[in-house]
Amino acid sequence: MLARYFSIIGMLMLATLGTFAQQGGDAAIALVRNRVNASGFQEADLADLVVKDHYTSVDLGITHTYLRQRHQGIEIWNAEIAVHQRADGSVVAIHNGAYASLAERVNASAPVVSGEAALATVLSATLPGTAVPPVVSTSVYFVRIGQGTEGLVERVVVTE
Question: Is the pLDDT of residue 150 over 60?
C-alpha cells in the first residue's frame, strides 16, 4: 500500500514538473521569436519550435532551454537554439543554429526513397547477401544537402 502511495505521489510530481518545463519552454520560445526575428528570420522560420530539453542548473541557477526548429512539422537536423537565462529572466546567452528562409530552401515535404529502401540499397552494395534487419523505428528530418538547400532524410533504427 505504501509503495502504491509513493507511486501516485511520484506521478503527480512528474506531471507538475512537466507543466513547469513546458511553461519555461514556452517563455524561451517567445523570447527567441522576439529576438531572432529581429535578425533576419521570417516569422514562418520560427513558427514551429519544439522544446527538446529544459532544466535549471543547481550550481549557477541558470535555466537552459534547448529548442529545435521544425518546418511543416518535420524537425531540422542540428537546427538548435539554446537559451540560457538567470533566475530573474535576464538572458545570459542565446546560441542560434536555426536556418532562415526555410520555405525557399526546402526541396520536398516527403522522402523520395524510404529509409528502409535506402538501407536495403546500402546493404546490397556494401555487404552483398546481408538481409535487411527488422526496423524498430524511423524518423524524418530535414538536413542540409547543399549550399542553401535542405532535403529530407529518413533515419532508420534497426535491431542488431
Answer: yes
